[in-house]
Amino acid sequence: MIIFVGVSGAGKGTQSELLGRDTGYDYLSTGDILRAYASPEQKLKMLGGELLDDENMIAIVEAALRQQRDANKVILDGFPRTIAQASWLLDVIKRKGLIIDAVIHLQVSAAVVQSRLQGRGRQDDTQAAIAARIAWYERYTRPVVDFFKAHEIPVFDIDGSGATSAVYAIIKEKLNIPKPTKE
Ligand code: AMP
C-alpha cells in the first residue's frame, strides 16, 4: 500500500495516477468517491473545505478496501487525513498482515496551492474553501505524518512545488521504481 498525504493542490491525485500506471497498483481516492456518493450534507462540508466525519470516512474506506483483490496493491489518495483515521488504518494493516510500502508527503506552500487550484475549476476551489482546507490540513492532517513516522512507517517528505514530471521523478527515485524494461 502506498499512501499520499498533502493538502488539496499538492498534486496527490496527479502523482498517484502516474504511480498507479507504473506500479499496477489500484488508485483509491476518497475525494472521488465522495464526489460521486456524498449526501447533500456532506457536499456542503466539502464545499466549505471542511473534513467529513471520521466514522463516515472509515466506513467508506473499509468498504472500498474490501472490494480490492489485493489490499497491498492500492494507492490511497486523501486518506487518512486525521489521527483517528490513521490509527484505524494501522490497526487494519496489522490485523490483516498488510504492508505500507511508503507514505508520500507532498509539501507545497499555501501560495502554490492557491495559484494551482484557481486554474483547476473544481466546485470547491473557491478562495475561501481553499483557505479552509489549508487550515484543516495544518490542524488535523499534518500530525498524521508524524504519527506514521513515530510508528516507523517509511515516510518521504517531498517538495511538490515543481512541475509534475520533476516531482514524479523524485517519487520514483525514492520508491526505487525501476525504469520500464523493453519486452
Ligand atoms: P480531495 O479530492 O482529496 O481534495 O477531497 C475533497 C474533499 O472531500 C475534502 O476537502 C474533504 O471535504 C473530503 N474528504 C476527502 N477525503 C477525506 C478524508 N479522508 N477525511 C475527511 N474528509 C475527506
Structure description:
- There is one protein chain.
- With 183 residues, this protein is of the alpha/beta class.
- The chain is built from eight helices and five strands.
- It has helices spanning 12-23, 30-37, 40-47, 54-66, 83-96, 110-118, 127-150, 164-175, and strands at residues 2-5, 26-29, 74-77, 102-107, 155-159.
- The radius of gyration is 16 Å and the shape is globular.
- The model has no long low-confidence stretch (mean pLDDT 94).
- It binds adenosine monophosphate.
Question: What's a quick, concise take on this entry?
Answer:
The chain has 183 residues and is α/β, with parallel strands linked by helices. The chain has helices at residues 12-23, 30-37, 40-47, 54-66, 83-96, 110-118, 127-150, 164-175, and strands spanning 2-5, 26-29, 74-77, 102-107, 155-159.
